[in-house]
């Protein structure tokens, strides 16, 4: 009897331990020099007078968001063909799909992000690791690309809006919020996250749409000014994909007087938590450039940001134009 119990225990132990090991084979530090790509997008015509030459841009606060946690940044330009995108994908350790004003179906931003998304899934399925974080438009894109053709967003009143994050009860079971400090969790019911979107992903959609529900786990929701509930934080159940409808990068780096971006210490620490988390995810990727010369040629240091914040009412302090 004792031998049978011991044997059963050993079988269970080996099964659980091996499963745990398999689940964590992806999550081993591969580099202490992570490089993250940010997807660029087309410059609106109305911005040309402020930005100057160039056809695409990246907002500088996304760059600073990553650099503050120990990553270097490479722009993923909209003029790259698929072959060049694939080559760059194999060189960087993660990607940010930022907020913006372009189409989710037909745009350079959408086409580039779709290629990276598909490559990231294949990489993970083959034992590798490539994290993605979407913010605002990027959050909406990550849901749209899983759902397939068709508009799934709704109009909401949440532009230039501070809102609390309504955490789901099982948030500690997520990768994103598993280790978030209690001192950051306690003030989640106060208005310290920045929203700048006119469209949102309805929470009801993720309750009824099996495809989205099976792929993503909803971590937080919000209500707009009119009481419409929308999804504000997502995490892929299998893949290292994370997204926020809110802007963790703005609190420390965007200073528009007319913008309701919170700048209190708690909001900034939450942004730092998100940055630290994602950059650490990038350290699990083994991708790398073929040479240091190639790294230096690709980094965003090769470009100078434009100070757009001096233009009254402009949305961002600085932009990189390409």
TrEMBL record:
GO cellular component: extracellular region; vacuole
Alphabetically ordered keywords of this record: Hydrolase, Secreted, Signal
Compartments it resides in: Secreted, Extracellular space
Keyword Hydrolase part of the UniProt annotation: yes
EC number in record: 3.4.19.9
Active site residues per record: 136, 247
Catalysis performed (reactions): (6S)-5,6,7,8-tetrahydrofolyl-(gamma-L-Glu)(n) + (n-1) H2O = (6S)-5,6,7,8-tetrahydrofolate + (n-1) L-glutamate
InterPro entries in alphabetical order: Class_I_gatase-like (IPR029062), Pept_C26_g-glut_hydrolase (IPR015527), Peptidase_C26 (IPR011697)
GO MF, one example: gamma-glutamyl-peptidase activity
GO BP terms: tetrahydrofolylpolyglutamate metabolic process
Superkingdom per UniProt: Eukaryota
PROSITE patterns per the UniProt record, alphabetical: GATASE_TYPE_1 (PS51273), PEPTIDASE_C26_GGH (PS51275)
Keyword Secreted recorded: yes
Enzyme class: hydrolase
Family note: Belongs to the peptidase C26 family.
PANTHER family, per database record: FOLATE GAMMA-GLUTAMYL HYDROLASE, PROTEASE FAMILY C26 GAMMA-GLUTAMYL HYDROLASE
Name of the molecule in the record: folate gamma-glutamyl hydrolase
């Amino acid at each position: 009897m004792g031998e049978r119990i011991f044997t059963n225990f050993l079988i269970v132990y080996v099964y659980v331990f091996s499963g745990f090991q398999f689940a964590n084979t992806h999550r081993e530090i591969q580099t202490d020099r992570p490089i993250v790509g940010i997807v660029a997008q087309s410059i609106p015509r109305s911005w040309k007078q402020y930005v100057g030459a160039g056809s695409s841009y990246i907002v500088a606060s996304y760059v600073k968001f990553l650099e503050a946690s120990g990553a270097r940044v490479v722009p993923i330009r909209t003029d790259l063909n698929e072959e060049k995108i694939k080559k760059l994908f194999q060189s960087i350790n993660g990607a940010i799909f930022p907020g913006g004003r372009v189409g989710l179906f037909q745009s350079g931003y959408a086409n580039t992000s779709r290629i990276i998304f598909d490559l990231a899934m294949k990489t993970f399925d083959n034992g590798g690791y490539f994290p993605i974080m979407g913010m605002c438009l990027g959050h909406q894109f990550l849901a749209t690309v899983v759902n397939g053709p068709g508009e799934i967003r709704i109009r909401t009143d949440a532009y230039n809006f501070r809102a609390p994050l309504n955490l789901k009860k099982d948030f500690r079971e997520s990768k994103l919020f598993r280790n978030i400090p209690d001192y950051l969790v306690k003030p989640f019911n106060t208005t310290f996250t920045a929203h700048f979107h006119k469209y949102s992903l309805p929470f009801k959609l993720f309750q009824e749409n099996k495809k989205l529900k099976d792929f993503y786990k909803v971590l937080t929701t919000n209500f707009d000014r009119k009481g419409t509930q929308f999804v504000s934080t997502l995490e892929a159940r299998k893949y290292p994909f994370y997204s926020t409808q809110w802007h963790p990068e703005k609190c420390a780096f965007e200073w528009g007087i007319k913008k309701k971006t919170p700048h209190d210490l708690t909001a900034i620490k939450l942004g730092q938590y998100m940055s630290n988390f994602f950059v650490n995810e990038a350290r699990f990727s083994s991708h790398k450039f073929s040479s240091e010369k190639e790294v230096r040629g690709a980094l965003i240091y090769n470009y100078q940001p434009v100070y757009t914040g001096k233009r009254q009412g402009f949305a961002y302090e600085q932009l990189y134009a390409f």
